[in-house]
Automatic annotation (TrEMBL):
Organism: Paraburkholderia saeva
Pfam families the UniProt entry points to: Aminotran_1_2 (PF00155), GntR (PF00392)
Keyword Transit peptide: no
Membrane-spanning residues: none
InterPro entries cross-referenced by the UniProt entry: Aminotransferase_I/II_large, HTH_trans_reg/aminotransferase, PyrdxlP-dep_Trfase, PyrdxlP-dep_Trfase_major, Tscrpt_reg_HTH_GntR, WH-like_DNA-bd_sf, WH_DNA-bd_sf
Presence of keyword Heme: no
Recorded family membership: In the C-terminal section; belongs to the class-I pyridoxal-phosphate-dependent aminotransferase family.
PROSITE patterns for the chain: HTH_GNTR
Sorted UniProt keywords: DNA-binding, Pyridoxal phosphate, Transcription, Transcription regulation
HTH gntR-type domain location: 20-88
Lineage: Bacteria, Pseudomonadati, Pseudomonadota, Betaproteobacteria, Burkholderiales
Entry-linked Gene3D superfamilies: Type I PLP-dependent aspartate aminotransferase-like (Major domain), Winged helix-like DNA-binding domain superfamily/Winged helix DNA-binding domain
UniProt protein name: HTH-type transcriptional regulatory protein GabR
An example Gene Ontology molecular-function term: DNA-binding transcription factor activity
Length: 507
């Protein structure tokens, strides 16, 4: 392409009125010309003075573009000779077409417009399996989002004061990567809290700080099992940890729950798993508490068969009308339980701080693996959280929120009772941040959830938490924690309208 032809081609495509800087447009257009071989390797490009004059732009703009193209390897400059297109053709691939033919394309075709791989080819089998069962919502706030606390009641002033104190000190050690296991200050504060509030038996060294339940489960699975091993999960169970397991290579075996928690059958017990994942203090999502007899049975079974139990204690602090229950880990005498917790529901989800409590013999391995795999940071946040706990703000906040959530839970029960009586009861135990409303067995709870979302109400279909949604009971998870008291009744009426209209439509 001669200089005058190139200038004309560029002038036709530069758009002075689209808001994009001329520098960026010129850089992109010259890249396209070189990649498409309209400017072949070895050809000389116009001088910056000549091209600037032809295009009516500042010479400095063209000079900057040439310098950037040279840095990226598109052109080379020789003093006294000018600027030439570099040879950027890919190395020849055995069995491939001629490189020039393979790379060449019409100048008008932009590189980003290349046809992408079909999704079926782009994703791996485990990637496709993960996304096929994904439960994440595009919205994370509003009535009746399950599992989300009222972040507007978080003591932001206290947190800000502690945060500012650490920033004023400007400690470099809090701005680098975290040591294995997390900040010792937080591990000490957390060990004391767990001993007194959850009857967890541990030293600070047994605690590993993570970004939350998902990462905690992922780390435990990676270190304690191999692809192909079997893990028991409650049926139904939390979709998030099920997604973690989907990409782990484990064989997930769903075990039905009854009023006493996970309830393995004789056939299940005849085939010991490598891992069990349970929510004994408040089964997710149905809400029952695992009985003492069932807890002792699981612990003894794990001891006899050398199984690991992952105890997900996701919201045990919020119990209404009675004290929080002791942990399963506190009953463990054989060192078979991995205790998992998070501050996402007690403080705010965006904090992204969780933890594992592991048997003493595994503590060093877990701490080292966490640092090796995830290269954790967040030390400044961990320091603030440690002081927040040590000064008593954490327990005070939980106490206040427990009272508030108890009131909102009752308001939701009252609203459901007024509308439906015993026809569609709301259940879920006397703990947690959500209730489950039972729908008629033949109702499509996914359709109800979609109809509610059209009315700006967020609920989750219960069937999605079961291993076999098509044959699962129909119901809705209704979160009440993040809904102001005065909005619960009118929001439930809106939800009820969605329920009624959907049930009539599919009747």
């Amino acid at each position: 392409m001669r200089a005058s032809v190139l200038s004309d081609w560029l002038a036709q495509r530069l758009d002075r009125g689209n808001g994009q800087p001329v520098y960026r447009q010129l850089h992109r257009l010259l890249q396209q010309a070189i990649l498409s071989r309209e400017l072949p390797a070895g050809s000389k490009v116009p001088s910056s003075r000549l091209l600037a004059a032809e295009l009516g732009i500042a010479r400095n703009t063209v000079t900057q573009v040439y310098e950037q193209l040279a840095l990226e390897g598109y052109v080379t400059s020789a003093t006294g000779r000018g600027t030439f297109v570099a040879d950027s053709a890919p190395d020849e691939i055995v069995g491939a077409p001629d490189a020039a033919t393979a790379v060449a394309a019409p100048l008008a075709a932009s590189i980003p417009d290349a046809t992408p791989l079909p999704a079926a080819r782009a994703l791996s089998a485990r990637g496709a399996r993960l996304l096929s069962g994904a439960g994440v919502s595009k919205r994370q706030w509003g009535a009746f989002m399950p599992g989300v606390p009222d972040v507007t009641r978080f003591p932001a002033r206290v947190w800000s004061r502690l945060h500012n104190k650490y920033w004023r000190r400007m400690r470099p050690d809090l701005l680098t990567y975290a040591p294995g296991g997390g900040l010792p200050l937080l591990r000490h504060a957390l060990a004391e809290y767990l001993r007194t509030s959850r009857s967890v038996r541990c030293t600070p060294e047994q605690i590993v700080i993570t970004t939350g339940i998902h990462q905690s489960v992922d780390l435990a699975v990676r270190l304690l099992s191999d692809p192909g091993d079997v893990i028991w999960t409650e049926d139904p169970c939390y979709w998030g940890v099920r997604s973690v397991l989907h990409v782990s290579g484990l064989q997930s075996r769903p075990i039905a729950v009854d009023e006493e928690g996970i309830n393995p059958s004789p056939d299940d017990l005849a085939q010991p798993p490598k891992l069990m994942l349970v929510t004994p203090s408040h089964q997710y999502p149905l809400g029952m508490v695992m009985s003492l007899a069932r807890r002792r049975m699981l612990l003894e079974y794990a001891r006899q068969h050398q199984c690991w139990i992952i105890e997900d204690d996701y919201d045990s602090e919020f119990r209404y009308g009675s004290r929080p229950l002791a942990s399963l880990q506190g009953l463990d005498t054989a060192g078979q339980v991995i205790y998992v917790g998070s501050f996402g529901k007690t403080l705010f989800p965006g904090l992204r701080i969780g933890y594992l409590v592991v048997p003493e013999a595994l503590a060093e391995s877990f701490a080292m693996a966490s640092a090796e795999l995830y290269r954790e940071g967040q030390l400044l946040q961990q320091a603030v959280l440690a002081e927040f706990i040590a000064e008593g703000h954490f327990t005070s906040h939980i106490r206040r929120m427990r009272t508030l959530y108890g009131q909102r839970r009752q308001a939701l029960l009252d609203a459901a009772g007024r509308r439906y009586g015993s026809e569609m009861p709301a259940v879920g135990g006397d703990a947690g941040l959500h209730l489950v409303m039972q729908l008629p067995h033949d109702a499509d709870d996914r359709a109800v959830a979609n109809a509610a979302l059209e009315r700006n109400i967020i609920v989750r279909p219960l069937s999605g938490y079961y291993a076999e949604p098509a044959s699962a009971p129909s119901g809705l998870l209704i979160g009440y924690a993040c809904v102001p008291d005065e909005e619960i009744a009118p929001a439930f009426d809106t939800l009820a309208d969605a329920i009624d209209s959907t049930l009539v439509q599919f009747a």
